[in-house]
Amino acid sequence: MKLTKYLLIAITGGIFYSCDVDEFLNPLPETAVTADSYFQSDADVLTGIIGIYDGIQGVNEAFDSDDEEYNRAVQFEYLLTEHRSDNTRSATLEGSRADFHRYLTDDVNVQSEDYWASMYDIIFRANNILTYMDVADESNVTKYTAEAKFLRAYAYFNLVRLWGDVPLITEVAIPDDRETLFTRVDVGTVYAQIVADLEEAVNGLDNTHKARASKAAAQGLLAKVLLSRPAPDYERAQVLCEAVMASGYTLMPDFYDVFYSELNAEIIFAIQYKSGDPLESQGFSAEFTSAIRQGEQDGLNIPEDNLIEALNLYGGNRTDVSLINVQGSVEAAKFLPDGNDWRNNYGDNARNAGNDWIILRYADILLMHVEAIMGGTGSTSNPAALASFQAVRDRAGLTTPVTSISQDDLLLERRVEFAFENQRFYDLLRFGVADQVLGAYAAEMGYTDYNARKLLLPIPAREINKSGGLLTQNP
Questions:
Q1: CA torsion 313→314→320→325, rounded to 10°?
Q2: Which helix (H) or strand (E) holds 287?
Q3: What is the pLDDT of residues 421-437, one digit of tens each?
């Protein structure tokens, strides 16, 4: 049968908005045109590719607070990651957002449902573009294909780390093909697809962009994938990190500038936002405020005492960029809305902030380089690893020479370097210590519902119901 494919096209300018979540793999929005009639030229394909980034960007809650109508994508990511680590918590115990840090998230959690739908929205958009690649200029097919596959791999990497086995969709699926749409595929197979997509991205991209996929972004993400999958490939991850290290990126001398001088020399891949524009801004920065409320909620991503202690002891000059004291309350400072703080009421656009979201930066490459050289062992004194580790510490003002690096040293360094950047939970998983660290943390905090099964999120009940039970639940 001939499958008619759909895309939601904005009336003004052709940028894609988030899909109707009732059909997370094949959205059929009310305001839709058939892709068969839309994709007629190379410019149309490029517009479609830009639309995939719009799916990652998500829709600001300040634009519309209806979580069932709009996908939030990375704007909700900190809840599923940072809040489920020992780094941060909600300021209150009310609402579904407060469930994440106490390991109470259930299969009807709105934010978890949203992130699942958002990632599959990205995958749908990428698959759709790949279907129409034949109308692109021949000279652009390789790079357009590589870009779409990079973004599909990015979405699947998030899904497989949070939910484990997930449906693997690599082409626009026929709605009646329920087996394809709803059968969970094992983690190893999903990782194999992610690796294949990123390998093609590495071969097909250059380093023209920072706010779009690049060769270095594909190399860096592939390195992290190879370190994260059940059977890590440390040697190849090291080679990939060293390729990025030879590509001209560098650490910013001032840690502050990493976050407020956007698309700087340290940024490898970031999602852009525009301050003051309800459709192109983000609202998560305002949610990190608590003592002086600026967001929709009562304060989220509130740093735990042990993170504050780690930054005070080991953060160096990163501490003042990462934390802020607001009238006696210590809060996250790294993504202050447009760089403004409570002394000027967080600026004019706190809930419509323009802070970019950094997905990959050069410091991550350097510390993954150390991790790859360490190769799963307890420590290393390899000179190349020491040089990469020392570079990150030197930038933080911690210039005492390091002669050996243990796994605990590396995990701590990553914690204080990437606080509030949604890395900690994944780091604990990748280093194989998540249950140990989070079990001790939960016991200390009195979170009695924690157990090792909580390292995976529950599959959204909405999706299981749509599948007629074909989509199975995590234990």
A1: -40
A2: helix 284-287
A3: 999 999 999 999 999 99
